[in-house]
Each structure stands twice: as structure tokens, then as C-alpha cells.
Amino acid sequence: MLLCANHVTRQLILRPSYSGARAWVSRRRDVRRHYSESNGPNIAILGGGITGLSTAFYLREALPSSKITIYEGSDRVGGWIRSTAKGIGSGDVIFEHGPRTLRPTIGLLTPHLIEDLGLAQDVIATRRDAPASTNRYIYYPDHLVRMPMPQAGEGISQVWNEPLFEGIGSALTEWFVSTRPSNLQDESVASFISRRLDRRMADNMVSALLHGIYAGDVNQLSMKSIFPLLWYYEGRYGSLVGSIPSVWSNLRSGMMLGSAREYQSILDRQRKPLGSTLKEKLSRASVYTLKRGLTGLVSALRERLLSRGVTIHENTPISALSMDSATEKIEYQITSAGKSLPQADQVISTVFSRHLANICKDGSGTTLLPSFGETHAVSVMVVNLFFQESDLGMPEGFGYLIPQSIPIDQNPERALGVIFDSCATSGQDSVSGTKLTVILGGHWWDGWTEFPDEEEGVSMARAILSRHLGLNATPTATQATLQRECIPQYLVGHWSRMEKGHQELKQHFKGKLKVAGSSYTGVGVNDCIQSARNLVVDADELAWKDKTGLEEFTGDLRFAEVYFRTRGE
Ligand SMILES: Cc1cc2nc3c(=O)[nH]c(=O)nc-3n(C[C@H](O)[C@H](O)[C@H](O)COP(=O)(O)OP(=O)(O)OC[C@H]3O[C@@H](n4cnc5c(N)ncnc54)[C@H](O)[C@@H]3O)c2cc1C
Questions:
Q1: Regarding beta strands 415-419 and 399-401, do their DSSP bridges make them parallel or antiparallel, or are they unpaired?
Q2: Are 539 and 62 in contact (CB under 8 A)?
Q3: Among residues 60, 73, 41, which one has the least CA distance to residue 356?
Q4: Does the Cβ of 398 fall within 6 Å of ligand 1?
Q5: Do 478 and 384 belong together in one domain?
Q6: Is the model's pLDDT at 569 over the cut of 50?
Q7: Which of 460, 489, 518 is the last residue of a domain?
Q8: pLDDT above 90 covers what percent of the chain?
Q9: Is residue 511 located within the same domain as residue 381?
Q10: Distances in Å between the alpha carbon of 557 and those of 21, 43, 108, 185, 496?
Q11: Same structural domain, 466 and 385
Q12: Taking residues 328-336, what's their average pLDDT?
């Protein structure tokens, strides 16, 4: 986490800590207008998910004279963000089929975007002292174990008594564990935790956490890509415990290391503080959403872009991309009858990276971007359930995650977790009752070719609720949605594959094809908006035309020094 929420009211002073970030800043000083005001570039954006829409939003600000066109393959923009209202009696409930909550502490740009779009009044924030923030559970046979809240200094006895926490004592000896070999470039999260701490921590707590974010396998996800700061600390200080004195001393002098990716958003934030409505709502929030669901963000973005002259073509899947070597312009085709579209000076792809690899081929049908062709994504089923009873005897809280260590005979539905929506996003629905979401599948379904249908999904979800929570009531409304290949997985080697992808983009498209979105630098909505902002931040500089969007994967890991000081200090 780059910033603790209680720093929201504090001033941030930033200094990039590594050479790459410094170079970035000095380049910014050397602003050279590449495109004249009257004759801006023709820019095509592939994909109208949150990354594509926010890329267009920031691009419109950075290059007002550019001609921006979004090509969206499906009949609606928003990508995985989709909220529907289910009529119940005289009111309705909001079902989210993709993302549902955002964190205010790590996505500093998103609140600004929400404010710019006039959505501040629609924000529903969950306070940090609300049960949905303090009560997060992991299922460990055969009950829900509440995660201790460090800020409350609680949980010591629980940690010793609950088998879920077995292995945590290894932190006491982590300092004595030898550092990784210098030639080890990456490893799985499970391998790192087992090597430095205890395998049981990887199988239990950490796998549950990764189920909640990536729906992914702790044995395959990349430590370097998912926890870069911990990877860096081991390399720099020899152990995680060994980094504590330095981290502590930094904190005392008001500084912490943060992701260089967030660097730009913090600069933006220094320039323009949040307005009082949103600042008030988010300063004490752990998560937030919008009254009518996150689709509200997509709709507002779409309207804003259309009003600012951005063209959006829905039902327009791009099926081929190539560069005309004479003009260095990019040609693209849409699927129907191979119809050719106007050429673009720059193309920004926000589609799943493996799909991009499939549409960028040479004359013999071989992909020009083989590094992206290897990206794997998991499929999940999202099962929304609404019960008219408000009190079903369930615990209050955000919900619970199910670790990978739970044997399949105790989790035959292959569930990843359950969200208690009526508590987590309280205030969204106009009828009272209990709203839950069960997430099934993820890496458990890797290699499957057939998936449960909607009816099976609902009965699997109900079986889980019955077994884990003793909940046998009949839901008033349900919906099960299969989301195929929806969460890209940053598997071991992701970092070096992205570095190679950067070279491939340079070689075959000379930087005219750029990438952003969930396939590369983070799967959360905040990450996607961040990647859009980072991609276009220097769009008015000459160097931008060669940028691929994957520069951060070249060279060493980079972090920014984030200074926090109370105003006036
Ligand atoms: C079930 C689920 C729950 C999640 N929960 C959360 C959460 O609570 N919080 C959070 O922060 N994040 C969450 N996420 C992650 C987050 O929603 C996604 O990572 C993010 O929405 C991805 O946005 P994107 O624009 O990068 O990609 P996408 O949403 O995939 O958008 C890409 C778009 O490109 C289009 N497209 C594809 N191919 C072509 C083509 N050839 N031509 C033209 N268009 C094309 C697609 O139709 C799509 O609209 C969740 C994701 C899922 C699936």
C-alpha cells in the first residue's frame, strides 16, 4: 500500500529514488510539442473497458487537438465492469458481475476521476471502523476465522490458537535465512514464502489473499511482479526482517518507498487536492463504490468522452493490426469481411495481451508479439444472490476467502470466496434484505473446457453457503455469470516476458503500438486507470511516440520515495 489512509489529509513530497524515475522527471521538463495544435495525431484505442475509456479521457486532456477513436468489440463499453439492477417488489438491488469495490488508499487517481466526472455525490464509502472493514474472514475447516486487525493491536491469542496461522512464528527466525541466489530472477509466491517463512503460510493465508485478488494459484503467481517491494527488500537487505530498521527510520523521517507507477498520481494529487465532499467521504474509508454500481463510472466516462469529440465504435472488434513500413502508420481491420479502417499515427491496445498477440501477425501467420501470446487468464463464475430476509444469522463483515489448502472434497464447488455485499457496500439497494456474491473457479478451472451453466452455478453457490454458513434460505433473486478469461495471471517470469514484449513492440511497431491495462501492470480498476494515466502523461513530448507502455519492465525494479508531512511542517 503506497499510502496509509490516515495520510490522506497530509501533504506529499516526492522524490524518485532510482535513475529511471529521475530520467522520467527530467524528460518532463524538456517539453517539446511534437504535434501542432491544429493538426493533432490520429489515435486509435482498442478496447472500451475502463483502461480504454480512461486512456481516452487523459489523452483528450494531454493532446486536445488529437483525433481519438475507441474501437470496442462488444455491444457495450465497460469490459468487465458491469452492474445490473434487479427489480424486487417496488425497488431494486444492484448486482455487480465484475468489480464491486475500490480502495481509496492505493488508487489515488480514481477519486479524482470520479470527481471530475461529477460523481462525488454517488460515492458510497465503507468507513474503516465499520464491521465490513474490521471483519474480514478466511474459511479454515470448519469455521470462519476473523483476521486480526493490526491497528487495534488485537489477535495475539487468536494467532496462537487458530490452525490457520500455523507457521507464523517463522517470522522470528526469518532474519537467519540465507538470501536468494543472485541468479534467481523470479519465483512463485509460494516458493518465496516457503523459503523465507513457512510453507503453511503460503498455503493458507497468502493463497486466500491471492484468491481474493487474482483468483490465482499461489504456486504459479510471480513474487517479483505481485509483491515487488518484498522482492526488493530481500535483495537489498538480505531478509524482510533486515529491512525493518531502514523502513522504520524512513517512516520516522516521513518517507516510505512506494510503487513508481503511482508516482504520477501523487504528483497530480499534490497539484489538485480533492474537493471537500469526496475528501470527507474517503478520508476514513477502507473501500468505496457508487450508488448504482461501478457501471456509473463507465457511463459517465462514455458521456464525457462523446461530449469532448471522442468517437466510440461499439460492435467493432479489431481483427488485424500491422504497420505500413513506408508511412510508419498502423493499419487495422475489423472482423466483418476484413474491412479496412483509416490508418492511425498511434494505436493503444487495452485488450487482453494474448488477444493482441493473435491480431498482430506477419504474412505467414506468425505472431509478432510472442511474449504476449503466453499470457494466461483465469475464468470465474460470479453468482449474485439476494434474500428478502435482513437477518439470516450471518456474521457481519466484508466476507471470507477460501485458501488453496482446503481439500477439494471439502470445497467440491471450487469456490474462491464469498462477499457479504449488503454489509460491504451498504446503502446501494432500495429494498432491504441480504445480498451475497459467491465467486467460483479461477485457477481451479484451468484447463477446463466446459463450465457450469447458470442453474448449476446458483446451486453450487447455495451448497457453499449452506455448508459454511448454515444458510439454507431460498433466495428471492439470483444471477450467475460466467466470465471467461477475465483475470490475467502474472505467472513466474511475467517481468521478463513484459521486458521482451517491450522489445517486440519496439521492433515491429517502433513504439506506434502501445499497451495498457490489466494484462501488464496490475489487475485492479485502480491499476488500470493508473496505467492509462502513466501511458499518456508525456503525450505532448517527442519521446512519447516511441513509448510502448512497458518501460517500467526494463532495467531494475523502480520505486519512488514518498514523503508525507503534515501541512505547515
Ligand atoms: C469477477 C471480477 C471481479 C473483480 N473485482 C474487482 C474489484 O472488486 N476491484 C477491482 O479493483 N478490480 C476488480 N476486478 C478487476 C477489474 O475489473 C479488471 O481488471 C478491469 O476492469 C480490466 O479493465 P480493462 O479495461 O483493462 O480490460 P477489459 O475490461 O477486459 O476491457 C477490454 C475491452 O476490450 C474489448 N475487446 C477485446 N478484444 C477486442 C478487439 N479485438 N477489438 C476491440 N475490442 C476488443 C473487450 O470487449 C473489452 O470491453 C475484477 C474482475 C473480475 C473479472
A1: antiparallel
A2: yes
A3: 73
A4: no
A5: yes
A6: no
A7: 489
A8: 72
A9: no
A10: 11, 30, 21, 12, 12
A11: yes
A12: 76
277 in a structural domain: no
Rounded to 5°, angle at Cα 101 from 122 and 548 = 105
Full residue range of the structural domain in which residue 390 is found: 83-106+119-133+375-489
CA distance 139 to 136: 10
Do 392 and 461 lie in one domain? The reply is yes
Task: Report residue 531 as a C-alpha cell.
Answer: 496505467
524 lines ligand 1 (CB under 6 A): yes
382 lies in the same domain as 450 = yes
The pLDDT of residue 333 is 76
Name the grid cell of 488: 490475467
Q: Which of 112-116, 160-164, 484-488 has the lowest mean pLDDT?
A: 160-164
What's the mean pLDDT in 381-394? 95
**Cis bond upstream, residue 129 (ω within 30):** no
**Among 25-34, 109-118, 204-213, the least confident range:** 25-34
Separation of CA 80 and ligand 1 centre (Å): 4
- The number of distinct structural domains making up the chain is 2
Per-residue model confidence as pLDDT tens digits over 441-456: 999 999 999 999 999 9
Contact status, residue 192 vs residue 185, Cβ threshold 8 Å = no
Helix (H) or strand (E) segment spanning residue 116: helix 109-116
Cβ–Cβ < 8 Å for 102, 526:
yes
Phi-psi group of 293: left, alpha or beta (phi > 0 → left; psi -120 to 50 → alpha; rest → beta):
left
Q: Give the distance (Å) from ligand 1 centre to CA of residue 556.
A: 28
Q: Is residue 219 part of a domain?
A: no
Residue 351 corresponds to which cell in the numbers above? 485488450
Atom number, ligand 1, closest to the C-alpha of residue 50: 25
**For a substitution probing ligand 1, which of 54, 80, 316 has the most ligand atoms within 8 Å of its CB?**
80
Residue 500, C-beta contacts closer than 8 angstroms, at least 6 positions apart: 371
Q: Is 99 in the pocket of ligand 1 (CB under 6 A)?
A: yes
Total residue count of the chain as it appears in this document: 569
Q: Is the CB of 317 under 6 A from ligand 1?
A: yes
Residue 71 CB less than 6 A away from ligand 1: yes
Is the beta carbon of 107 within 6 A of some atom in ligand 1? no
Q: Residue whose CA is closest, atom 19 of ligand 1? A: 523
Q: Specify the residue with its C-alpha closest to ligand 1, atom 40.
A: 317
Contact 11, 567 (CB under 8 A): yes
Ligand 1 center from residue 548 Cα (angstroms): 20
Query: Which residue among 525, 527, 531, 533 is best mutated to probe the pocket of ligand 1, counting the most ligand atoms within 8 A of its Cβ?
Result: 525
Q: Are residues 415 and 500 in the same domain?
A: no
Q: What are the helix (H) ranges across 135-186?
A: 156-161
Rounded to the nearest angstrom, the distance between the alpha carbon of 102 and the centre of ligand 1 is 14
**Closest alpha carbon to 351 in 540, 486, 253:** 486
Ligand 1 center–CA 485 separation, angstroms: 10
Distance CA 196, CA 241 (A): 10
Q: Which of 38, 444, 438 is nearest to 220 (CA)?
A: 444
Contact 268, 14 (CB under 8 A): no
Ligand 1 centre to CA of 126 (Å) is 24
Task: Report the phi/psi class of residue 108: left, alpha or beta, with left for phi > 0 and alpha for psi in -120 to 50.
Answer: alpha
Rounded to 10 degrees, the C-alpha dihedral 185/2/132/288 comes to: -110
